[in-house]
Amino acid sequence: MKNKIFSFLFVFIVATIVSVPVRVLAQDCSGYYMLHNNAEYELANYDKKDKLTGRVQYKVTSVNSSPTKTEATLHSKVFDEKGELATESDYTVTCQNGSILVDIRSMMDPEMFAAYQNMDVKMHGDHLNYPLMLTTGQKLDDGTFTIDVLDKQSGQALTSIVMNITERTVGDKESIHVPAGAYSAFKINQDMEMQTRAMGMNMPATRLQTVEYFVPGVGMVRSEAYKNGKLQSYTVLNKIVK
């Protein structure tokens, strides 16, 4: 369960970031493709042996704008490796104060909590911040998210999971090709750590190093997860429906 939760966290962090691409020259939200109503795209997830492990489809279902921010509601459909629908969910993303703000709740797949269906699950933490403008060498804000699993009847804490995302650094631009096309992308490196406490006992921490390929005007087109320098999984932008 621990590894599955960490895997889903990584995939949905990537998926959420892809859903809110930035524009290099625009300082407002109007140019964001995935903040346009009815915009669609798809991610494909693979393991270290290049085996397809699932797909995630997204569609913007509504957009609300004000002079200070833009907020979009997206509907996601998660398909397993056999192409069967596993789960659906809705979430919001926000463009405000020169940044994209990603809510931790938008990164969670309800299916990953199947083992906790008779329990109370609470999530809270930072909004992961992505500035409109990216430059090589730029340091991005860290993020910390917490998931608490409680017994519904007694309210007793059963499991606590803390995800820390640190050392977020923007690297040079690189040429990259994915199924959706060829791009020039910023390479963003970051560390991810998951600490779990179950029934009062601390479990060994799980750590990954991740690489994200971010294209101004498009968003995240590829991400990779490494453990001890070895590739564990990756996600690519499969297609965009314009």
From TrEMBL:
InterPro entries: DUF3108-like
Domain DUF3108: 40-237
Gene3D superfamilies, A to Z: 2.40.360.20
Domain of life: Bacteria
Designated name of the protein: DUF3108 domain-containing protein
Organism: Pontibacter populi
Lineage of source species: Bacteria, Pseudomonadati, Bacteroidota, Cytophagia, Cytophagales
